[in-house]
Each structure stands twice: as C-alpha cells, then as structure tokens.
Amino acid sequence: MTIITNVPIAARERTLAHLRTALVERMNVKHPVEDIDPDVALFGSGYGLDSLDAVELVVFLETRFGIKSTEGDPMQMRAAMRTLNTLTDLIFQRKPELAHVA
Amino acid sequence: MSLELDMLALRQGVAWSESVKTCFRVSGPKALQAVNRLCPRELYIREGQMLATLLLDESAKPIADLLVCAEGDDFLLLIETAPGLDIAVILSERLRPDGEISLSDLTPEHDLIGIDGPYAWELLSEWLSPEVIGLPYLGFYRSRGFYCFRAGSSGEYAYQWMIPKKESPAWRERLLRIGAHFDLRQVSQPALDLCALENFSFNVRRESVPGITPVELQLGWRVSLHKTFVGSDALRLRRAEPRQRVSLFSCGQALSAETLFDPEGRPAASVIHSAYSPDCRAWLGLALVNRELAYTGVELKAEGLESPVRLLSAPAVNNRSLYVDPQRHSYASRQDMTLPPLVAAEIP
Fold it and tell me: Which residues of B fall within a CB distance of 8 Å from A77?
C-alpha cells in the first residue's frame, strides 16, 4: 500500500530505530528493541531511565546526530528528553536535513 | 465547577480530589506468591516502593490500572477499575484467598484523596511532613496513621493520601486551611481525565475497549514478556503481529466521527475518545491508528470535518512540574520563574 503524506515517515522510523537500539544497548532497557514504544515516558515511569542514563543519552545525541546539549534552550532539551517521539522532534528541528534523507 | 479553573489549579498550582481508586491489602504467609501470580509484571519491588502494572481479561484487554505496594510481608493494591466490574470479585478469583492468603478491602473504612499540581509537594510538606519532599516517584510511606503514595496520571507532582475515615475530618480541615495559601481547589474527575489525556497517561475508565491491548496502548512496559497471567496468551499473539498503535491527536473542531481516513480516503484509524483542552485551545483525543500511519505529524480526515486530525508527539503540554525544583522554588515565588510555554506540541 502506498501511503502519501507530507510527513517523512521513513526518516522518522529510521531515527526512532536508532534511539530504540541506543536505549537497549547503551541504557540497558530490558525490552526487545521492536517493543519499545515512541510515546512512553523515558524517565520516572515508563522505561525508568535514571540520571546516569540521561548523561548517556546526551552523549549519544551528540555522537550519533551532532546535537549538542550546550546549544539552544536548556528547557527545550529537558522537554525533548521525555519520550522517543519528543527526542525525534528535537533531532529533526536541529538537523532538518535528517528528515529528508531517503 | 469550572473546567478552566480546575485546569489552572492542576497545571499551575495545587488541586485536590476525592480519589476514584480502591485499596486492598493482601497478607498472610503466601501473600508474595499470590501477588506474584496476580501481577503481570515481574514483582521486583522493595519496601516502600510501588509497581505500576495492569490487570487484563482473557482477551488481553486492560480491566484495571494497578499499583502494587510492598509493605513488610504484606502488599497494598491501589486500583482503578474499568466501569461495570467488581474488582473485589476479580481479585478474589485471581488471588484465591485461603488460610494462608488474606484479602481485605480497605476502601470502605478509609478516605482516599488525590493531590496534584506543580506545588503539591510543597503543600504536602506543610500538611503532612517535610519527608514528602524526598519521596521518589512510585514511593510511599506510612506515618501517624496515614499513607502517602506518590503516583498519579496528571503529569504533575501527584500523590494519593489515605487515612481511616474516623480520623479524616481533622486532617481535611487542616488541608483546607493550609491549602488556602496555595489557592487549593477541589477539582472534578473530567478535569483529571483531561490531564491524563493531555499527558497520554492511561485512563482505564476511558480506554478499556474491546480489541485494544497493552500492545496498542503503548503499555508493553507494564506487562512481562515471560510470565503467565490472565491474558498472557492473547497478548503474546498480539505482540507477534502488531497492526495498530494508539496515538494522541489534535483537531480544530469537535469530533463526532469514529472513523478517520488517510489522504487517499482509506480507513486508517478509529477514535477512542476526545475532549476539548482549554490550555491547548484544541480538541485532543486518542485514536487507534494503523501502524504504517501512526507517526507524529500525519494528518487524517474525518467525514464532515474541515479541520484535519493531526497525530502528535505526547505529551501535549509542557508540565510545570518538569521545571519546578523543590530545593529552589515555591508557590509564593512562582511568578519569578521563567518557564517555557505550557503547550508543548505544535497544536494546529
């Protein structure tokens, strides 16, 4: 089925896949990669990441996507770290070219 | 009751409500085995901790939102149940109380109050004790005859407070007296439900729908892949072939349609429920969306509606509680804080 939409679904799914893999391999989230949902809270409830995982996530964002936590509004970064979807929104906002890679 | 004023208290101050949760105690020499059998999640909790999980029916539909609380050799079960179900009967069937397992319903003899808001911690620290400030999320403690549980669905600092009914009046009077300094407001269940919707928090009273399991609801983290429990067989089958995902959406108009269509006019989603959000100035809702389209930004159509239905990244609001620090901030000086806009998502 061909889906026609102005949303870069393939690019979004690819970014989510990178983030899911990072959660499992770097932050020890104990769920299969394919079961990790995009709107589940990363900290507190949900996947239960802690402050050490937050550091790991920040490092991953910089090394994998070139997103520096020291750039931009720190409150925006805090809001972005809530779910995989909000992280993807931040990545696409800071690196719009990633939303258009085929 | 004014929904706007309720939401103001919930999102920017402190609110209280009569809780719809019930509370049971499981005790006896085999309490651990019984609760482990009941609980769809691995029961790895310590004294004073809570575990968020679900009760499912045989089709894997969630029928109760369950918090398992470890207290010594006993367990407290804080439960919110889908409409029309008798949770006491369900628990009795699943726990099978006998000489070694005792199940008692604490609800008839206890008052249960919810306190929510970015400054709820401050009010509770004055009303109950300063140790509330250090209480971690999904932690609880007992003191002077009351229980204080830190849990909730509003996306703000949230607590449930429980005390024997006969001791409640004096505590309530004190709560309202101290609460006057926080503009404390009693809020309605629709306001709390709206908070849950804005925050994409599971609401068993609205989302216990045939055909929808934790897989679709993005609640896989609340159930185990390995344990056997009521509904685990159906869940395993659904996990093997997930086809749909529940997503948060916004729309500029009230939605009465149940079916949503993709840009090519094909059925793509079904609406579960929706409500108007004064803070977002839009209609928000949950839809069960075909997975190939369940992505932020996708726009679907409803028959007879001019506005598109746009899928969002949850949550829809920038909860103030994310930025309020009990070590530095207070309700009295809240106007001095610089905060981002309350509405997080780009709401069309």
Answer: none
